[in-house]
Each structure stands twice: as C-alpha cells, then as structure tokens.
Amino acid sequence: MTVSHENPANPKTGASWKNWVRFLGPLVIMGIAALLLRDKMPFLATGYQEVLSAKPTGLVLAFLAVIASIVVMAEVMHTLLNAGGANVRSRDTLQLTFIANSWSATFPGGAALSAVYQFHTMRNWGVNVLVSSWFIVVSAALSTVWLIALGLISVFFFGADFSLWPMLGSVAIMLGLALLVWWVTNHPEPAKRFVVAVIIRAGRIVRRRPTKILDSIDEHFGQLDAVSLTPGKFSWVTLLSLMNWVFDIVAVWLCVWAVTDVLPGFRAVENNTTVLGVVLAFVTAKIVGTAQITPAGLGPVEAAMTGSLVAVGMTASSAFGVVFVYRIISFALITIIGWVTYFISVARGGMHVGSMSS
C-alpha cells in the first residue's frame, strides 16, 4: 500500500523568479565577463574553442558518472534510513537526493537549507527525529572523512608540500565521530546512562532539575532500539560514501579527456596532468566551495579548480575548458534535473513512500 504525504517543507512552494535570477545570475555574469575579456585574456578564447571541439563521448560518460555519484548517495540515505526502521523506497531517496542537491546548489549557504529540507521531508515520511538527525550526522561524517582522505592521498603521492598532521587530525576526528555514532546506535543504554549522568551533574550545578530534558533523552534513546546498523551495513555505507566522491572525480577525469583528447594516467605528459592531479584539483575546489558565498560556490570553485589544474600541469586554456564543461554537467544540468524533480514530485502532489522498500 502506498501512502502519500504532502511535503510540509515547501519553502514558499516553487522557486520564484527571484530565486531563479539568484541561481542563474552569477553564471550569466561570469559568461558576459569572460566574453568581454576574451581579447585581454587569450586563454579564454582558446578555452572556448576547446569546449566546442570536446569529445561528445567523454561528455556523455562524464554526465553518467555524475548521475552515478547522486545514485550512490541516495543509496546511503536508503540504507541508513531503513537501518533506522524507516520503510523507504530507493526511488524516494533518489528523488530527495536530487532535490536536496538543487536546494544546496541554488542558494548561498544552500547546504544548510538542503539539510533542513531533507530533515523535514524525512519527518514527513514518518522517520523519527533521532533517526533523521542520525542519518545527517553519519552521512556527513563519512563524506568528509573520504574527501579529506582523498586529498591527503593525492597530495602525498603527487609530491607537493603540505602539513600532514592537521589533515590526519581532521580525518581522525571525523572517523571517530562516525564510529562513535555507530557505537551509540548499537549500544544505546550505556550511551544514555552517560548522557543522563552529564545532564544531572549540569542540573546540580545550575540548581535545577532537568526533568523535561531527561524525559526527552529517554524518549530519543528509546527510538534507537529500532536502529540496526550492523558492521556489514556500516561498511557498505562507508564504501558508498567513498564511491560518491570517486564517481565525481571520474567525471572531471573524463572531462579532461573530452577537452584535451588525452586521458590522464599515473605518468604526466606534456601540457596535461595525472589521475592524482585531477583528484587534487577536485578536492581543492570542493574545499573552497564549502563556504558557498555564492550559489554552489560559483566563481571561487571555478577559479580554484582552474588554478589547481594549471598547477598540476595543464595549460590555462585546457584547464578553463575542462572546468567549464564539468561545471555545466555537474552544476547546471544536475541542478535543473533536481528542480524538475521537485516540481513533479513535490509541488504537484507530494512525495510518496511505499510500505515496502525496493
């Protein structure tokens, strides 16, 4: 039996024309600026020519790789929510992943809006507060761990100078957080006793009995009894989180091939880069994009990725062409797909959750 729920998280249902201006504005401004500066910055004109002559096969494969990265993240959501006792279909988590990605990419600070949107949608599906929050924490922790790990590996083997200990410390903290969440999930009673003891001690210090807080803690930890995240499932989710980044990096790698007609390997060739160079440029751009001063980091992300690709061996024109086609695929096309999905699946009737997961 299929149960239909109206989504309560329709922030002013349907993005208004102002939102679309905010979304497309930076991209249009960048295009106009590049056009006006083409004579003063010759690599832009050369880059445009490389874009126009890019291999269609490489671009199509890059697009499929980006789609694959979205699909595996949707499977992370599907696996974790079902481990938490929520009977959610893969199709629904895939729709939500596309939509949440569009919310994140469209607005400055979109990552926070995306997390809120996902949380409200999951609550609308009947997922309790604790499991919804638990999914967001676990998925974010694993994603961050793998991004840092990929950056560490690429920098280390590429031979660049870097500060090892801060990166190792970041990996250890995020991995520790993910493992702590996994342990709490599978051992709620000891975790509850510890949290209750801390709350009671704090209550004594401020001379107040935290009755309501204790009742809430008891309720939330009681909900964890429904969560069953075995080591096998945790390992599977961890692998999927890694593959999300791998598929995205493969998309950049294929864009390099499409634009330059050279598929990067492990040995550098003249005016091109290596697999590790592609990884390093990708991670650098992702780190820069986390600030999201502009929608999807438009501007800073392109500058960071172009500069990184040049630093690892590519010409400025080729790097510009690669970044241009990659961002059209991974940002513009995927965001449009997400908004189309939003209007079809949410604005016109709400998300649907079946009684059986697929």
UniProtKB/TrEMBL annotation:
GO cellular component, one term: plasma membrane
Predominant cellular place of this UniProt entry's protein: membrane
Listed InterPro entries: L-PG_synthase/AglD
Membrane topology: Multi-pass membrane protein
Keyword Transmembrane helix attributed: yes
Protein biosynthesis is among the record's keywords: no
Compartments (UniProt record): Cell membrane
Pfam families: LPG_synthase_TM
Sequence intervals crossing the membrane: 20-37, 58-78, 98-117, 129-158, 164-184, 272-291, 303-322, 328-347
Keyword list, A-Z: Cell membrane, Membrane, Transmembrane, Transmembrane helix
Top-level taxon in the UniProt lineage: Bacteria
Record's protein name: TIGR00374 family protein
Organism: Corynebacterium matruchotii ATCC 14266
